[in-house]
Write a structure and sequence with these properties.
single chain, about 100 residues, alpha+beta, three-stranded antiparallel β-sheet, two-stranded antiparallel ribbon, 3 helices
Length: about 100
């Protein structure tokens, strides 16, 4: 699902809200989460999950084409830990469609 499909899915569940407003909210959400992670803060949505950052150490890699060793710099990487509610929703049995 891409951003426009997500906007359509949310719009179907909230008929009183415009797609433009939903798009603005999604953009504001992603910008806010990105900003918090840049500042080293975690973002926790109870029941859904936690966005946080982790450190990846510098290491030596290998160019797959040439086999040459390359230095890969240390980096902060975003991580997501799903909450219990999300895990339960993903593992819940699907409702069977009624046959006519």
């Amino acid at each position: 699902m891409n951003k426009s499909e997500l906007i359509d899915a949310i719009a179907a569940k909230t008929p009183d809200v415009t797609k433009q407003a939903i798009g603005e909210v999604i953009s504001a959400f992603t910008e806010t989460v990105s900003g918090c992670l840049q500042n080293g803060d975690d973002v926790t949505l109870v029941g859904f999950g936690t966005f946080k950052t982790g450190k990846r150490e510098a290491r030596i890699g290998r160019n797959p084409r040439t086999g040459e060793e390359i230095k890969i710099a240390a980096a902060n990487v975003p991580k997501f830990s799903p909450g219990k509610g999300l895990k339960d929703a993903v593992n819940a049995p699907k409702a069977k469609a009624k046959k006519k």
